[in-house]
Design a protein that fits this description.
flat, mainly beta, four-stranded antiparallel sheet, 4 strands
């Protein structure tokens, strides 16, 4: 099913914190044809997993934090 091909975790179990924790996604590696992201615990910064994005399967819209915005009146 195409709608389930691009999951993003918002929380994962952290063995160091011993509970489910919110995670942040960090771009780890860019390779020809794919990007690898690392999920980091927001409590202790432990790596909790990875996600691969294969070229051609990227989500249509990126989160606002990845969008470069122009400053008003600036170039």
């Amino acid at each position: 099913m195409e709608q389930f091909e691009s999951f993003r975790a918002s929380s994962l179990f952290c063995t160091k914190c011993n509970r489910a924790m919110a995670v942040r996604e960090k771009l780890l590696l860019v390779l020809p044809g794919k990007e690898i992201y690392d999920y980091l615990c927001t409590g202790c910064a432990e790596s909790l997993g990875q996600r691969e994005v294969i070229e051609g399967r990227r989500p249509a819209a990126m989160p606002a934090r990845h969008v470069r915005r122009r400053h008003p009146g600036g170039h």
